[in-house]
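ligand=manganese (II) ion
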Amino acid sequence: MIIVMEKGASQEQIQAAIERIESLGFIAHPIIGVERTVIGAIGDERDKPMLQQVENMPGVERAVPILQPYKLASRELHHERSMIEVGGVQVGGELIRVIGGPCSVETPESILASAQAVKAAGGHMLRGGAYKPRTSPYSFQGHREEGLKMLQAAKEATGLPIVTELMDPRNCELVARYADMIQIGARNMQNFQLLTEVGKAKKPVLLKRGLAATITEWLQAAEYILSEGNPSVILCERGIRSFGTETRNVLDLAAVAVVKRYSHLPVLVDPSHGTGDYHYVHAMSLAAIAAGADGIMVEVHFDPQQAWSDGSQSLRPDKFARLMNDLKPIAKAVGRAVDW
Ligand code: PEP
Ligand code: MN
């Protein structure tokens, strides 16, 4: 339920509404706007039908039932688009943002070379996995904390903030120490314990869409994080499973438009995992920005043929630089700007 206060509602009236919501067993999330205050009442309304009574309180304009099964992620509660700061970079504003880097952190030299390529072309953040969710237990699993240290060294050398994946709630504190943004991978989108843990972390979260998740399930996953008190969630469309074999996944660019309609959260697109083939990354990156994405996350490797994972979908530095250049007119055409 969303409690919309009247325009001139007093502080006392707002406080009284909050207290009433809480006394009925809900968590109150006030959002103080320039014009008016709205209060999200979070909780299961099915066994507490009394919430509607708040509507009768002084200063309350109306109580609106929420149709979507997510509240904090919804634009109903938070109409203006969210801007989220990641290591000094604002995501979700007019400027398009680009995260680049290898699939896995391999060696100190290779992550540095890839980071320098990302930086030189104008990229804003460095990605790289130190904990890798591999389909086979015999594949390279990541260097774990050693990988995080390699990322940190690359950050110190280039100034690029770090985006890296967390797979296990037990490592949350450790990963949060190194990461500027914690990535939750597709395979863990519905790992609710992990979502709850990053919801308590003080770092932005990049929430990738699950392999077979509906958009509503994805936003409900975001709700887990938001409802724990972490407001900094950025969504990332990375393709969903279908029957074709020509691409690794089906990159659902319509999802960008749907998310923009129903949620205030920024959304990025990962054309690398979305297609699984570097031949298609350029076109899908341009299409993502045209569709309204706030940025892209692309796998970039200084030498993809030597990559330890996902080399076939990684861009060489020269191809990444060309992509960065070609993004400029697309961003402009859809009313966005670039800073490179
Ligand atoms: C990744 O970004 O490295 C990754 C494993 O992606 P996804 O979770 O989308 O498969
Ligand atoms: Mn990868």
